């Protein structure tokens, strides 16, 4: 069976998740394998040659097949109750019309600093209702888009833009769902929780009785599924010393390896908790087999005639679990930069000798304050700043 063909995108995403988990360490984290797959899938739609082959090894798809697969998965996710998904691309280089048509549902805009570097006119018709605004407002505009799509769960993109990016892609995934049967708030009480370092402390713990059919075992992992709107929320408990790579894949293990619980019902005690992390996924890509796409000789000619390579991949994600339900969101950011761009001239101005300051009115006519600094500045504590 070919991963990534019609009906098997889920296999490719689960495979990515299983390969990614060991790289995330044993501390707290939350990530979105679907979000990472969708974001990289969009750029894989424009990958060619050995770059495309490399991404296919991770995602199961490349080129036109990637565009079709991303569209299918995006529609499948968007159809879930309580789930929202959106993808936006902002570019400072001309984007091929075939690429824009291929990745259905992706919104296109223009990076504002592209204007400063003689952006060819043909890139501007590639935009839609995402404006490019003025450069000082662009970060805020994109952050506002992230907040809107996530319902305020994620306040901003994972990594602030610094003006060196030539193409930025953001995939946003958000979930808000209620338990089919809420945890009674009156039963929540502090109970002991022992962390991975062996330290025990009391934490707010929710309680309720559930049917035994909501619980099963996969090897040494206990899986509890709580009905929740249009999604399946599963909590997993492994043995002492097990890491996330040992435990989490049991969530998607098939029915053939599940062992039913020998009980009539279960008294469930589940901590009320939140997880919020930002992951630099670029650091993980080489271990996942992606290296050429990160080099200046990468081939993303299906996206643009300008040479591009991946310069950054980051993801901010969160999950909040409480008595009434679960909220979760992830924003995956891919930044691409030019592989052989002409050098941009940047002037450095350092205020490293006596300098002046003047504050004028709004019309720039009345000098409200004027000053001159000839000594080395100090901070408020009296040390040299």
What layout of secondary structure does this protein have?
Blueprint: H1 9-20, H2 33-44, H3 49-59, H4 63-78, E1 83-91, H5 97-102, E2 107-110, H6 135-149, E3 167-178, E4 189-194, E5 200-211, E6 215-218, E7 221-228, E8 231-237, H7 244-247, E9 259-260, E10 265-271, E11 273-279, E12 308-321, E13 325-338, E14 355-360, E15 367-373
Helix pairs in contact: 2-3, 2-4
Q: TL;DR of this structure?
A:
The protein has helices spanning 9-20, 33-44, 49-59, 63-78, 97-102, 135-149, 244-247; strands at residues 83-91, 107-110, 167-178, 189-194, 200-211, 215-218, 221-228, 231-237, 259-260, 265-271, 273-279, 308-321, 325-338, 355-360, 367-373.
Detailed description of the structure:
The chain is of the alpha+beta class. It folds into two domains: 235 residues, 2-Layer Sandwich (Antithrombin, Chain I, domain 2); 83 residues, Alpha-1-antitrypsin, domain 1. It has seven helices and 15 strands. The chain has a six-stranded mixed β-sheet with strand order 2-1-3-13-12-11, with helices on one face. A four-stranded antiparallel β-sheet has the order 8-7-6-9, with no helix packed on it. Strands 4-5-10 form a three-stranded antiparallel β-sheet, with no helix packed on it. α2 packs antiparallel against α3. The longest helix has 16 residues. The chain is globular.
Top keywords for this entry?
4-stranded antiparallel β-sheet; 385 residues; alpha+beta; Antithrombin, Chain I, domain 2; disordered N terminus; Alpha-1-antitrypsin, domain 1; globular; 6-stranded mixed β-sheet; single chain
